[in-house]
Every structure is written in C-alpha cells, then in structure tokens.
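Give me the fold.
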Amino acid sequence: MKLFKFLISALALGLMATVPALHAQDGQAKKKGGMSPEQRIAQIDEAVGGLNAEQKTKITSILAKVQESVMALPAEERGAKGAELRQAANKDIRAVLTDAQKAKFDAMPQGRGPGGGGGGGGGGGGKKKKDQ
C-alpha cells in the first residue's frame, strides 16, 4: 500500500513538473509568428515619440494587411517574400509619418529574429594578399 501511494505521489509530482515546460513551449510557438499589429504599433509609437489617432489607424491597417498577406503564403515562401512585403509595408508606414518621425522610424531596428536578423555576415573586408 505504501508503494502504491509512493508511485501515485511520484506520478503527480512528475506531471506537475512537466506542466511549466509545456506552457513555455506553447509561449514560444506563439512568439514565433512575430509581433501582432497592435504590438508593432506600440513599438513604433514609442520609437517615433508618439503617433496620433489617424496615424495609428492607417498603420494598423497597413500592418494587418501585410500580416494577412504573409500568412497566406506557403511556409517555404514566407521568408523571402515576407521580407519583401514587410519592406513595402515600411515604405507605406513612412508615408504616414511626419519628417521628424521618419528619421526616428528609420533608426529603429527593422530586422526579425535575434540580433535584428537578416543582416548577413559582412564577408571578407580583411587584408588582401600582397602577391595579387
């Protein structure tokens, strides 16, 4: 009987230990898709020093449209074509901003993923051989 109670307790403890790990994985899956239009608006609003209501409405529409377009792409095309769509959206967003806001918007990191993503490796740039 003691063994049975011990096994039930161990099983319950093991189950409780795995629940936080499952929630963490679920949270990572939700974050993987990038920011929602509302989150991106908040980021832009803070970076440019404040957006008015009309700007927020227009930019929300731009971001929702690009998000919908990216999600409609096949998964294997979302990287390259999604980047093109986001670049086009950034141009549309710039058109809504004042000149002062444009400068601040341009200073924002626009890449995705860790470290701003997609910047490339820089490549070479070192000393050339003297023999050439």
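Residues 34-107 form one domain.
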